[in-house]
Design a protein that fits this description.
Blueprint: E1 3-6, H1 10-21, E2 28-31, H2 63-68, E3 71-74, E4 79-83, E5 88-91, E6 96-98, E7 101-104, E8 108-110, E9 123-124, H3 129-138, E10 144-148, H4 152-163, E11 167-172, H5 179-182, H6 184-196, E12 200-203, E13 207-211, E14 218-221, E15 226-228, E16 231-234, E17 238-240, E18 256-258, E19 269-271, E20 276-280, E21 284-287, H7 291-305, E22 317-322, E23 325-331, E24 338-343, E25 350-356, E26 359-366, H8 379-389, H9 395-399, H10 405-414
Parallel strand pairs: 1-2, 1-7, 2-3, 7-19, 9-16, 10-11, 10-16, 11-12, 18-20
Antiparallel strand pairs: 4-5, 5-6, 8-17, 13-14, 14-15, 20-21, 22-23, 23-26, 24-25, 25-26
Bound molecules: flavin-adenine dinucleotide.
């Protein structure tokens, strides 16, 4: 059997590692289009961008490991076509590679802004190490930078550039950073943190055009403001990398559609990570763009490829670092009926709980809550257990500091 993995990101790398750990010792090929070994991107908007660490601590496996484990890692040669019936992929360099099992781990890429001047020098975005190196080289203390978009990447870049002495003006839709994802209360707390650090937040505004002769000099916003700047960073969302699957027969709809075993509609072809639009037993159909999922779903997909799979039912979690604050989140709630807090978001660390039908669907902690992946102890690990139970929870107990969240977990098992 030959296994081919499309994509050398954290999902592709972890899938290869799991295949070998699970005893698969046949031909294994990773076809990638970024240089270097698979690594985690989180430091690109944080420590690596600020020059505080290199990426070696984020390698999925050390560079020599791939050769040692007889894994062929071909970089700079992306897959351009999949022939599902003929069991072959074609690469950009024109090679035709046969497979018995194929794993699609091609991730996502940044969306651009379809406005005038978007191709000027100094209009940048962040996904790869090369992107990050460009932003880092262009950001000098005292510079003025306009950030378009205040999702997770935008918010983290705003924080890092500010910490590097750059003046940041952020232009974004909505009322506050991440309001659509996290709700108004959490977004207001994040907005306060950014403002306290000196970021100018232009909520409810957008980029109308970038101005400059060859290099960016200013951004004109839809509300008519002219913001002089030396660089603009566009962080307005992503789209899944699926074009190479056109006419392959693999079903695609906002990512590659997979079932609970990470299997596509074509036998022998699987998908995982940011590109996978999965059927999840608790959260329904969704695509998740977070590191922990990419790592864990890759392992699940690898086991499925070896016919050792189990339904992938991971209770998602992710984190975001902005200044000295860490935001931790567990579960997923795209909408919710009730949101209650423990602590005071206006002044300090707090937990937020997203409820639907009386049950906890997700929880967030800003500067509080600990690691949701911990087996026990942390408040967010208790939340994870409450989410997994799907049981109705006592809302007043969630917001009551005197009630230990682990007591609620205990009362579930007692009941
Ligand atoms: C700057 C930044 C910071 C982040 N910080 C956090 C964080 O703090 N917390 C968190 O939870 N998540 C974070 N994330 C998200 C996390 O990095 C992603 O969820 C994760 O990278 C997904 O891994 P992946 O392997 O599925 O996709 P990717 O990392 O996108 O890797 C896919 C790879 O496949 C390649 N590829 C695409 N098409 C082809 C093709 N046709 N042939 C071959 N190769 C192809 C791509 O170039 C890429 O190298 C961050 C992301 C970024 C960009």
């Amino acid at each position: 059997m030959t296994v081919v993995i499309v994509g050398g990101g954290v999902a592709g790398g972890n899938a290869a590692a799991t295949l070998r750990d699970e005893g698969y010792d046949g031909p294994l090929l990773i076809l990638a289009d970024e240089p270097g070994v698979p690594f985690g991107r989180p430091p690109l908007s944080k420590t690596y961008l600020r020059g505080e660490e290199d990426l070696s601590g984020w390698f999925v496996r050390k560079p020599g490991w791939y050769r040692e484990r007889e894994i062929e890692l071909r970089t700079d040669d992306p897959v351009v076509k999949v022939d599902a019936a003929g069991r072959r992929v074609t690469t950009r360099k024109g090679e035709s590679v046969a497979f018995d099992r194929l794993l699609i781990a091609s991730g996502v890429r940044n969306r651009g802004l379809p406005v005038r001047g978007a191709d000027l020098d100094g209009v940048l975005s962040l996904r790869t190490k090369a992107d990050c190196d460009r932003i880092r080289a262009a950001a000098q203390p005292g510079d003025r930078v306009v950030l378009a978009g205040m999702g997770f990447i935008g918010s983290e870049v705003a924080a890092s550039l500010t910490q590097m002495g750059v003046h940041v003006t952020a232009v974004f839709p909505g009322t506050a950073p991440l309001a659509r994802v996290l709700g108004d209360e959490v977004a207001a707390a994040l907005a306060r943190v950014h403002r306290e650090h000196g970021v100018e937040l232009l909520a409810g505004d957008g980029v109308q055009r970038f101005e400059g002769s060859s290099r960016i000099e200013a951004v004109t916003t839809t509300s008519g403001l002219r913001l002089e700047c030396t660089m603009a960073v566009v962080a307005v969302g992503v789209q899944p990398n699926t074009e190479f699957l056109a006419n392959s027969g693999v079903a695609v709809d906002n990512g590659v559609l997979v079932d609970e075993l990470c299997a596509t509609n074509v036998p022998g072809i699987f998908a995982c990570g940011d590109v996978a639009n999965m059927a999840h037993p608790l959260f329904g159909r969704l695509r998740v763009e977070h590191y922990n999922n990419a790592e864990k779903q890759a392992a699940a997909a690898a086991r499925s490829m070896l016919s050792k799979g189990a339904p992938y039912d991971y209770t998602f979690s992710f984190w975001s670092d902005q200044y000295e604050q860490t935001l931790e989140y567990v579960g997923i709630a795209h909408s919710w009926e009730r949101f209650v807090v423990r602590g005071r978001p206006e002044v300090g660390p707090f937990l937020g709980f997203y409820l639907e039908g009386g049950a906890l669907r997700a929880a967030v902690g800003l500067g509080r809550g600990g690691d949701p992946e911990a087996e026990s102890g942390s408040e967010l690990a208790a939340c994870r257990r409450l989410i997994e139970s799907r049981a109705a929870v006592d809302i007043s107990a969630l917001s009551d500091e005197k009630v230990d969240l682990w007591e609620l977990v205990g009362s579930l098992s007692a009941g």
